[in-house]
Specification:
alpha/beta, Arc Repressor Mutant, subunit A
Length: about 240
């Protein structure tokens, strides 16, 4: 189970730090043992299960951090069905599917279901390690993004309606005089609202403010004005390269 601790930066309850773990699910004991030994050579924590039911039964104590390394074809619940079941239960750790019976159709189905990657047995040890490590990095990125969004929404809950309105205009690149004119406020009042917004959200710069505003559920992205110098978006992530 995930525990929580106060975040000293935000006074918000955040998930306690845990070491990521690779959950190996394969009905072949020799494969499970070999994978455990391989992954431990690069200091990765592992937990192995002989079938999907064993992992599902362990869910109350399984941390939601790490990745799943699962065989496609197993008695009972197969690897792809296990992936879908975990997603339905709210467990979003990346899944790497292994199979000795791989074909194009199985790979396409797996990818459409949101599987992180698909590797065929027999595979080279280094290949598998690289895939697993990238899956763990993706998991860490996803969790960092979720935490940032949680912090932004929690802080934004303290904003008044007027402060939200001023914030929206600031991130669009409007100057205090423009905001004051449009909202029929004094420039000094706009400056005070703006300062409170920055303080409540913990933003040091307008760029920080724009990034946090984009994480809010009612955020409406707007392009920056020409010459404003504000970032228009986040860099695209590099797609994962399949191994087959």
């Amino acid at each position: 189970m995930c525990t929580t601790r106060p975040d000293p930066e935000t006074d918000v309850l955040a998930p306690a730090a845990e070491e990521p773990k690779v959950y190996v699910v394969d009905d072949d004991a020799a494969v499970r043992d070999a994978l455990t030994v391989l992954l431990r050579t690069v200091a990765l924590r592992t937990e192995s299960h002989a079938d999907a039911r064993s992992l599902l039964d362990a869910l109350p104590r399984v941390p939601t951090q790490g990745c799943l390394l699962v065989d496609l074809r197993m008695p009972g619940i197969g690897g792809l069905d296990l992936h879908r079941t975990l997603r339905a239960l709210g467990c979003a750790i990346p899944t790497v599917i292994m199979t000795g019976h791989g074909d194009v159709r199985a790979a396409v189905t797996a990818m459409k279901s949101g599987v992180f990657d698909f590797v065929e047995k027999p595979f080279r040890g280094q290949e598998l390690i690289e895939v697993v490590q990238e899956a763990l990095r993706q998991d860490a990125r996803s969790r960092a993004a979720a935490t940032e969004q949680h912090v932004a929404r929690t802080r934004a809950a303290a904003l008044t309606a007027r402060e939200r309105e001023v914030m929206a205009r600031v991130v669009r690149g409007e100057r205090n005089k423009e905001i004051a004119r449009d909202l029929r406020l004094s420039v000094r009042t706009v400056e005070l609202h703006r300062a409170r917004v920055m303080q409540k959200l913990g933003a040091r710069t307008v760029c920080d403010l724009a990034r946090m505003a984009a994480l809010l559920p009612d955020a409406t992205p707007a392009p920056p004005r020409p010459g404003s110098g504000y970032p228009s978006g986040q860099p695209a992530s590099r797609p994962n390269a399949p191994l087959w």
